[in-house]
Amino acid sequence: MFETKLAYDALSRRIKRFTNHDSQTTYYYYNNNWQVLCEYNASDEFQRWFAYGNYIDEVLMMSTSYAPPLARFYIHDHLYSPAALLLFNGVVLERYEYDAYGACQILDPNFASDADQKSDYANPYTFQGNRLDLLDGGNLKLMSWPYRNYLPDLGRWTQAEKLGIIPNDNRQINPFDVRKQYKDGMNLYKALASNPVRNTDLYGLLCVFREYKENFWLDRILRWGDKKIIKDVLKFLKGQRSRN
Ligand SMILES: [Ca+2]
What separation in Å is there between the alpha carbon of 216 and the centre of ligand 1? Predict the structure, then answer.
């Protein structure tokens, strides 16, 4: 029987993973942007580290501790989903393609399908720059967004929306119209507003149009977005951080 144990800290960051099918334990260490900086094994030995770009989901580089240490570089598509993993000289090591809801297909450099559909380089980052775990011996594909887990094969979150209903919203809620009572839609498990090729969700809290992410500066969001909802998200995140 396959078993996986995940441990989280008080801020919902996943800090440990154990899987019995490969007897691997991984500890994760984060920066203050909720990005995994480095990983250690059960013996507290350094395994690898990552570097990121301007956006929370923009992984740029993965470097291992193995001898000799090798840096591998990412290139992305328009949603910051890695499209390929490269060596420093541009040689392609592995390619990634996605269906609309982010189920990842791993390809060899010559575009042939990877035989076992497991990254030959243990690359954890796939759809929209979030981490993919192959659990249950590879039968269950589970992705980790900061606040929620996502099932790419189903295109749904595994947990209900965390922002909840909209109290005292100036949109004059009709109590008989449930469609507008929840911040991310009436289906509490619906991801990316059912438009995954355009939308993104930085934290697993609220879907935003890609244009907002491209301009992820507060003034732009407040100008273009739903001010009340965006403020609620920022307030929620600030509250989470202040618990640290
Ligand atoms: Ca493989």
Answer: 35
| Pairwise CA distance, residues 2 & 136, whole Å | 5
- Strand, helix or coil for residue 228: helix
What pTM, to 2 d.p., does this model score? 0.81
Q: How far apart are CA 139 and CA 228, in angstroms?
A: 40
Per-domain residue ranges for the chain? 4-156, 160-242
Q: How much distance in Å is there from the Cα of 118 to the middle of ligand 1? A: 4
**pLDDT tens per residue across span 13-65:** 999 999 887 788 999 999 988 899 999 999 999 999 999 998 888 999 999 87
Distance (Å, rounded) from C-alpha 53 to C-alpha 57?
A: 8
Distance 52 CA to ligand 1 centre (A): 24
